[in-house]
Amino acid sequence: MERQQDNASDADSDLEELEGDIAKLDETVRTFLADQRGENDASPAARGLLRGKGARGPRKAAKPRGDITARLSKVNQAFLSGDYSLALDLVFEVIRINAETHQAWTTLSSIFREQGDMGKSLSAMVYAAHLRPKDVNGWLQCASFALENVADDEAGNLNTARLCYSAALRADHTNIDARLGKGLVCHRQGHLAAAISDYKVVLEHRTYDLEIVRKLAEACVDNKQAEAAVPSAIAAYKRFFDHERTKPQMEITEAPWHDIGIYVELFASTGRYQEAIQESKSLSRWLLGREAEDYWDQWTSDDREWDLDDERRAAVPNFTAGVWSPDTYGQSFPWDLRARLAIYRFRLGDEDEAMRHLLWFEPESILTREFAGDFPFLTFDLAEELAHRGHTPLAISYYQILRDLPGDADATILLQLGRCYSAVGETATAEEYFLAAIDADEDNIDARIELANMYEKAREEEEALILAAEAMALRQARDQNLEGHQDSITDLEQPSRRAPRRAQAVPRRTDAFGKRLIPRRYRPKRLAGADKRRQEEQARAMKLTEQYEIVQDLRKKIKEGQHNLIPTWMASSKELVDEFRSIKKFYTWDKYLHFLGPKNHLQQQEADKPQNELSQMYERLARTLAPQPGSEGRDDGTSKPDAHQGISFNNWLDLFLDYAIGLAIAHRRDEAYQVCEAARDSTAFQAPEHGFMIHVAWSVCAIYTSDEEKCIATARQLMRDGATSDSYRMFALLSNLCQSPVSWYTSGPAQKPIPKGERTGRQFLMHVSLCFMATFFLRRQATHTH
Questions:
Q1: Short-list 713, 721, 773, 723, CA closest to 748
Q2: CA distance 501 to 314
Q3: Residue range 621-637: mean pLDDT, rounded
Q4: Could you tell me which residues are beta bridge partners of residue 648?
Q5: Residue 761: which CATH number?
Q6: Rounded CA gap, 587 and 89, in Å?
Q7: pLDDT score at 528
Q8: How many domains does the chain have?
Q9: SS (H, E, C) 439-478
C-alpha cells in the first residue's frame, strides 16, 4: 500500500513537472509570437488589446552559424597579426557566404582603415550600419568617421554624414546628438533653412548652450530669407542673456562681449537700429556692474552715457557723479560696440552723434590700426558710411589703414579708394586704384565700369570700349551662373559689406572649357603724366625683353635634356603670347573684342528688356569707334613696324607656333588651335611666308592631336593660298599621317576638289611629300623645344 502511494506520488510529481514544462513552453511561444508582432505583453488579454500597435521593424539578426564564426575568428587572427591581405581574403569569403554578417563588414572597415583607404572604410562602415538600422550609435559613428575624413572628399563625406545623422534620427527622433550633427552638416553644406530648423529643436533641450545659439545666429544672418529667420536667433540670444543676468556677477567667468556684438548686429541686419543701440548699451551696463542705472534706458536721443567725461552726463536728472567709478563709463566701453553705435547713428541720420563716436578713432593712432586689424569689417563699414555722407578724406584714411593690413590685396578696398579719389577729383590716383582692383580680382566688374566712365570723360574711348566689353562679358557670365545655381548665390545676389573678402580666395570666372573668361593683359595708365607713362612703357619693354630671354634660355636647356623645365617654359611663353594678343593695334576690332570675351552683345540684348547704363555706354562707344565696313586693313601709306618691344615679328611668330605645338603635345588641342588662330588673325603676320608657317604649324598640332578634319582643312588652306605642287604634296602627306582609313581619303567631302590624277599618283607623291615634310621638321627642330 505504501509502495502504491509512493508510486502515485512519483507519478504526480512527474505530471506536475511535465505540466510545468508545458507551461514554460507555452509562455516561450507566446513571448516569441509577441516579439514577432511587436507586443509588450504576452498575455491573451494584452494580446487582444495591443494587436497591431507594437514596434515595427526587422527582427533581430540570428547568431552566425558555426562555420561563419570560425571564419571570423581566422579573420581576427590575421588582422591582429598584421596580415591584412589574408584578412581581406577571409572576410570577403564570409561576405560571399552571408553578406548580412554585421561583424564581417565592421572588420572589413577596420582593415581598410589600417591600410589607409578611408573611402572604402567608410563605405563598409555604412553598410554595416544598414544591417542594424535601429542602432543609433552605429549611425553616429559612421557620421563622425565621415566628418573626420572630410578633407578626402568634402562634398561626398558631408553628404554621407548627413544621411547617417538622418538615419539615426529615424531610429530615434529624440536623439539630440544626431539632431545637432545633422544641423552642423547642413550648415556646412549651405542648406541653411534645414540647419536653422535643427538648431531650434536642439535649443529646446539646450536652451542656454551658447555655441548652438551662435550657430543659429550665423545661419540666420546668412540665410536668403534673413528677415524671417533672424527673429528666432534674437529670441535665442535674449533667453541666454536673460538667464545670464540672473546669475551673481562673480559667477560670470568670461564676459560675453563678443556675443553682445553678434546680438546687436542681428537687430541691425533687419534695420532695427534703435533697438540695436538700446540693447548694446543695456547689456554693456550690466557687464560693467552698473545695471542699477536703468534710467539710461529712457535716454535714447544720444549716447552721452558712454562719453569720456561727465560734461553731457551731468545734464541728465538722475545722474550723480561719483556714485560709480568713471572707468565704468566711456573708458570701459568696447571699441567694436562704439563703432557699431557710430554706424547705427549714421544710418538713423544722427550724423553729429556718430561723429562724436569717431573722435575715438584717430587715423594716426596705433590703437585705431590695432582695432582695424581685429575688426576689419567694422572699419570698412565706418569708412563706407563716411564716404556716403561726404566725409571723403576721413574715409580715405580708414580705407588706407585697411589696405595696409597684412595679407593679399583686397579688391573691394582698392575699388572704394578709387571711388573716393575720383570723388575728390584725383583721377590719376583713382585710375591706379581701379587698375589695382582689377589685378587683385581679375573678374571685378565695378572697377571696369568705373574706369570706362573715367576714360570716356577723358576722351580715351578706345580703352573705355574694351573695358565696357569686358564688363559685359563678366556680367553675362555671372547672370548665367546665377540662373544655374540658385541655391548658392546669396552673396552674389545681395553683396554683403560684412563678407570676409580678405579671408577668401577670389574665384576666377572661366568658360565651359575651364579657360579664363577675360585673359590677363597689360593695362597702361592712360591718365598719368607723360613722364610717368614714358617710364612705365620703358619698364614694360625691359620686362618683356628679359622674359623673352628667359624663354629662349629655357628652350635651350630643354633641348639639352632638362625636360622638367617644360612647364616653366610653357607658362613663360603663355605670358608673352597673351601680352602680344592684348595689343589692340595688332588686331582688327572684331578679332580683338572676340579675344576679350564678349561676342555679339548688341545682338544678344533682348528687345523687351531695357538696356542698362553699361549697355548704353557700350553702344555709344561702339558707334563712335567701330570702323566702317572695308576700312580696316586699308593701307594708310605709313610704314609698318617690324618689331614690338624690341622683339622682331618673326621671333614673335616663332614664339606663337612653338607654344601652340607645345600645347598640342600636351593634348590641349583647343588652346593650341586658338593660339594658331590668333597668329593667323594678327595684322603683324600677314606676309605670305607667315601664313604658310602658321598653317604648317597648325597642321602639326592637328597631327599631334589626331584631328583628321583639321589636317585636311589646313592642307586645303595651303592649296588655296598657292596651288603649288608642294601644297598638294602636303595634302597627301597629312591625309596619310593621321592614320585615317582609306575611305576617308578617297570618299570624304573634303577630298572632292582633288583631281583624279592626284589620287592615282598617291603612292608616288607620298614619298615626295615625306621628303618635303622632313625638310620642314628639320628646320623647325632648330628652334622648337620638344
A1: 713
A2: 44
A3: 59
A4: 643
A5: 1.25.40
A6: 66
A7: 76
A8: 2
A9: HHCCCCHHHHHHHHHHHHHCCCHHHHHHHHHHHHHHHHHH
Rounded Cα gap, residues 534 and 536, in angstroms: 5
> What is the Cα Rg of the chain in Å?
39
Tell which of 10, 34, 50 closes a domain. 50
DSSP alpha helices (H): ranges in 208-334?
Answer: 210-222, 226-245, 257-269, 273-287
**Is there a domain that residue 725 lies in?**
yes
For the chain, the 3-state helix, strand and coil shares in percent, each to the nearest 5, are 70, 0, 30
Confidence band of 736 (pLDDT split at 50, 70, 90):
low
Domain boundary residue among 28, 50, 72? 50
pLDDT above 90 coverage of the chain, percent: 33
Whether the predicted model's global pTM rises above the 0.85 cut: no
Sole residue written with cell 562679358: 473
pLDDT at res. 37? 56
- Cβ-contact 269, 344 below 8 angstroms: no
Does a structural domain hold residue 660? Answer: yes
Structure-block grid coordinates of residue 661: 605645338
Calpha distance 313→489 (Å, rounded): 47
Q: How far apart are CA 585 and CA 633, in angstroms?
A: 11
Query: Phi and psi of 647, rounded to 5°?
Result: -115, 125
Instruction: Judge whether 762 lies within some domain.
Output: yes
**What is the DSSP code (8-state) at residue 310?**
S
Rounded to whole angstroms, the Cα distance separating 586 from 685 reads 9
Q: Counting Cβ atoms within 10 Å, is residue 720 exposed (0-12), middle (13-18) or buried (19+)?
A: exposed
Residue 702, classified by CB atoms within 10 Å of its CB into exposed (0-12), middle (13-18) or buried (19+), is buried
Could you report the per-residue pLDDT of 448-457, keeping only the tens digit for each? 999 999 988 8
Amino acid at 247: K
How many other C-beta atoms are found inside a 10 Å radius of the C-beta of residue 487? 10
What range defines the domain where residue 37 resides?
Answer: 2-50
pLDDT tens per residue across span 301-335 = 899 999 988 889 888 888 888 888 888 888 999 99
Q: Could you identify the residue written with the cell 575651364?
A: 514
Min mean pLDDT across 266-275, 368-377, 412-421, 769-778 is at 769-778
The C-alpha cell 607620298 sits at 766
Residue 465 in any domain: the answer is no
